[in-house]
Amino acid sequence: MLYPRMNDKRDVYSLNGVWDYCFVAEDYVPVKKNRSGKPMAVPASYNDIVTDMQTREYSGKVLYEKEFAVPKRADCLYRLRIGDASHKCEVYLNGEKIGEGINGFYPVDLPLENLKENNLLSVLIDNRLTAQTFPNGRMKDGKQYIKHDFFNFTGIHRDVMVYTLPKKHIDDIIIRTVVDGDYEKVSVELKGDCGNATFRVYDEQGEEVVCTKENVFKIKNPNLWQVMNAYLYTLVVETDTDKYEEKFGIRKVEIQGTKFLVNDKPVYFKGFGMHEDFFILGRGNNPAVSLRNFECMKWVNANSFRTSHYPYSEEMMDLADRYGFLVIDEAPAAGMVLWSECFGENACNDETLAIHKELMRLLYERDKNHPCVVMVSVSNEPMTTEENSEKYFEEVFKETRKYWEVPVTFVDTWHANTSYAAKFCDVTCVNRYLGWYTDHGDCSVVEAQLSKDLQDFYDKYQKPVILTEFGADTIEGLHALPAVTFSEDFQMMYVAENCKTLDKLDFCIGEHVWNFADFTTHQTGGRVRGNRKGVFTKERQPKMVAYYLKDRWDKK
Ligand code: GCB
What we know:
By secondary structure, the protein is an alpha+beta fold. The chain has eight helices and 33 strands. Strands 26-27-28-29-30-31-32-33 form an eight-stranded parallel barrel, surrounded by five helices. Strands 3-2-5-11-8-9 form a six-stranded antiparallel β-sheet, with no helix packed on it. A hairpin with a 2-residue loop joins β23 and β24 (about 260). (2S,3S,4S,5R)-3,4,5-trihydroxy-6-oxo-oxane-2-carboxylic acid binds near residues 309, 380, 431, 514 and 533.
């Protein structure tokens, strides 16, 4: 699956902007334009744009429509690309169904076969979460119940494009950098009707370093893609009829004992779990916000992040490649709780498993050429204390490993002896809020409890460990002596206590503070304008703890 890029063989037309949207009944079919639509921005969630609660928190079907026209050329094929419509969607062109998106957070890419002079594109979204959607949720008496701690943002969240392809075209490019001591072999697999292909590689100065007809070639004295010191080559594939340009980096990922090696050097993961979330935009992709996120992460001396709890936009992944961040690429499998059949339609079942497997494949299709992806996480905090989760995750891991060559994990909240799925992970990833959700306000419990928990995991599985979440809700500007919870003083003490403990555990290869920035959640008693565990505020300004981390990570 190639991202739409414009060149002399391919056109791209943006459909971003103001669309019409409205809520529709269960059996609604968009055969003709709905005249009751109101204006809505794309890409964006509608939830933080509207001013009434019923609209903000609506669960059901939502129709997005856009009229458009593009120059018509007989010599090419037209396709539609929606970066993400959350969650499931059906797509209609001029009243005819042309395809669907099985889940939010993934691109929907469909042929546009019967384009007219003027066209109507209708995207019928369903934002309800059940045991067969990702994330999981539960509907009861028309009400949405959710087990995860982030808002169910709804809308078309990423760019919408119409693009053209030559009739004989490249469908996909898979780039593998074979690092075998001299770090120089690159192999390119093409899919599609490609005929006679030429491969050219340009370095960052724009100098051509390779020009060949062979799909396996060498780059002399290559620059490696290094952590926070990225080097990206540009591959240009040209066939008789088509052309496509894809960036790639040369890097090798390996686990040796308790070490996670990138290009043979051990790395320590310093960074965050994050969310795609900003004022008014909701989960809408915005390059300025993404860049501010990266600049803040670089400033604080982070070198990695997890795409908690769903795949982030393709544009974010491109930036991570360019900055040199290590990314743990997470599937949207949050809130997975029930595997037992006695829960009927509320249980994860074979259908859930089939979709989960397909989402792992689609993640590979989308992200395979990104050097930043050094590990894949199949789920966040599933209820792996349930016996039936073992078989389920065995299958999900097996499927994921069919595609991905990087280490595979999931993020655990249970214990070494209680988690049925911990054994499948290449790296043990654990979330802990000791002194916060347990022994609230007492940092003195952290050292003993955290060391024991992580040591137990290591003793049992002998895998390197990352503390993938720890953090404390903090209201910026609130100070307290002694440091009570919600103050900046407490957050700093809390984070430092966890970090100090990790320094004593040599099997521990990383720390991801929860969260990079404050973010929106559902309304519950424990959340004041959402989750406030950000090291940065929602405006992307540092809280006091950011200065502690900046100093620590500079030395680490
Ligand atoms: C967790 C979850 C994360 C929550 C966080 C919290 O364990 O993985 O999604 O936001 O705790 O702050 O409660």
